[in-house]
Amino acid sequence: MNTKFAGFLGAAAVMTMLAGCTAYDRTKDLVTEPVVKDVKKGMTRAQVQQIAGKPSSEVTMIHAKGTCQTYILGQRNGKAETYFVALDDAGRVMNSGYQTCAEYDTDPQAPKA
Prior knowledge:
Elements: H1 3-32, H2 34-37, H3 45-52, E1 57-60, E2 67-76, E3 79-87, E4 93-97, H4 101-104
Antiparallel strand pairs: 1-2, 2-3, 3-4
Keywords: DNA-binding, Membrane, Signal
Protein name: DNA-binding transcriptional activator OsmE
InterPro entries: BamE-like, BamE_dom
């Protein structure tokens, strides 16, 4: 077997295992973190706060209408693991996910890097 090809296969295997770790951790969040497992699109701000508690921060979005709340789920590799909840102008959940509010609230017209 070619040494370069074997190295490539080894690197691919390591990357696959690391990706699996992230997926596993996030699957665990679906069971243990109320903001991840129970907050759904269309819920009100009050319902989110009742389920998930007070967010770590809340900002007015620049490129989308509404506000964005950040929840800190814990630490991963020395960095805070964040989860955002975006609320429309009426205060209802329109989206959520494993990003910061800044990563979510990007200009849709900006060229992709």
